[in-house]
Design a protein that fits this description.
elongated
């Protein structure tokens, strides 16, 4: 729908229209015209605006990004007042006096508060509105010098017209410019953020700092933590299985099916053109718990047969494969068919959860076939290693 509306509004003269599909839960308080934001900060506004303008132009040329815009508006008319410090010193006027006079005249400075029994009134010091509108009337403003002489302020400063920012936005305590953008269909967020960071490193001076905001920032945080989460899940499973079977070796046999499940999940996501996002990472973590039960069923039976019946490792694992084949197939098919509606994208909002279903279904299909053959082999070889 947004794509159709963009085509209809692109030719409307005199206006730029930005469409946005806001997420159900807004992450971050920063509002922008597009979904993703990139903030540039720096103490020097001249370098900040020059660098941000160059970066915006660069991002508009990037093929993965659309609707690139920023909160930087540099077309507000303004008067640039420059103090002639040598002349001011000669006439006995300090730069601080000139700055205070301009602030008092045009800055709407509150100088005191009048308290009454029923109310209080703020006293604001400024010149009359008709004197604020005409810059030529600056000559009517005078400053008292050190020798008690009134000096017209236009004799102490030079004035020229220009343009500047409507507002100076801040992030924290530093002036900032926030660039917002959207992605073209089929472009992954990780690739787009990497391209933006590379462009910022090339185009911005080292005095400026950058960072993503809102949804893009949370994506970076989650992407950094998901890898550690996968490792932590595997380590916890190894420790629990080690305590359960009182062995350092057989937990490795149980975890031997995880590589095939991971390959199957990633291959399925690539086959259907789905990206590796938060949902698919949750699916991979689910696979860790689902896939290892195949090996647990076989190894648990084989270990009991070895310890109670005195069977050899080969006979024990062979009998385990025969006896536990049916429950392995039943539990795997239950999990696979349960995730199939999610993988097919059925139901309201299921298209966002589809990567989770694809990862689970693909990982289960591949691991189910391979673990039935690989797990007995791993069991025998690792058992020989244990005896050595």
């Amino acid at each position: 729908m947004i794509a159709r509306l963009r085509r209809k509004t692109v030719d409307v003269p005199g206006i730029r229209v930005f469409f946005q599909n806001p997420p159900p839960i807004r992450i971050g308080s920063r509002m922008a015209k597009s979904l993703y934001q990139f903030t540039v900060q720096g103490p020097d506004t001249k370098d900040l605006y020059a660098g941000a303008t160059k970066l915006v132009a660069r991002m508009k040329q990037m093929p993965d990004l659309i609707e690139v815009t920023s909160d930087m508006q540099l077309r507000s008319p303004q008067l640039n007042v420059r103090i002639n410090r040598d002349r001011a010193t000669a006439l006995g006027v300090s730069a601080r006096q000139i700055e205070d006079a301009l602030a008092n005249a045009y800055g709407a400075r509150q100088i005191t508060t009048i308290f009454t029994p029923n109310n209080e009134y703020q006293v604001v010091l400024e010149v009359m509105p008709e004197y604020q509108e005409n810059p030529t009337l600056l000559s009517r403003l005078h400053i008292r010098s050190a020798v008690d002489v009134l000096v017209p302020i236009d004799s102490l400063v030079s004035v020229d017209r220009g343009v500047g920012p409507v507002t100076v936005n801040h992030s924290g305590q530093l002036p900032s410019v926030t660039i917002s953008f959207d992605l073209r269909p089929g472009v992954s967020l990780g690739d787009a953020l990497g391209g933006v960071e590379a462009a910022a490193r090339e185009d911005l001076p080292p005095t400026l700092t950058t960072g993503f905001q809102g949804t893009a920032q949370e994506f970076q945080k989650s992407a950094k933590g998901l890898g550690l989460l996968l490792i932590a899940a595997i380590v916890v499973i190894y420790l629990v299985m080690g305590m359960l079977y009182e062995s350092f070796i057989h937990p490795i046999t149980i975890l031997s099916g995880l590589p095939s499940a991971g390959v199957g999940a990633l291959a399925t996501l690539a086959l259907f053109g789905s990206e590796l996002n938060l949902y698919s990472m949750v699916g991979l973590i689910m696979l860790i718990g689902i896939v290892k039960k195949n090996a647990i069923m076989m190894i648990d039976f084989a270990l009991v047969a070895e310890r109670t019946q005195g069977k050899s490792p080969y006979d024990a694992i062979y009998e385990a494969c025969l006896v536990r084949f049916r429950p392995i197939m039943m539990t795997t098919m239950c999990a696979l068919l349960g995730a199939l509606p999610i993988a097919l994208g059925l139901g309201a909002g299921a298209e966002s959860r589809r990567p989770l279903g694809l990862a689970v279904v693909g990982g289960l299909l591949v691991s189910q076939v391979l673990t039935l053959y690989f797990t007995p082999v791993y069991y025998l070889y690792l058992d020989k290693l244990r005896l050595r």
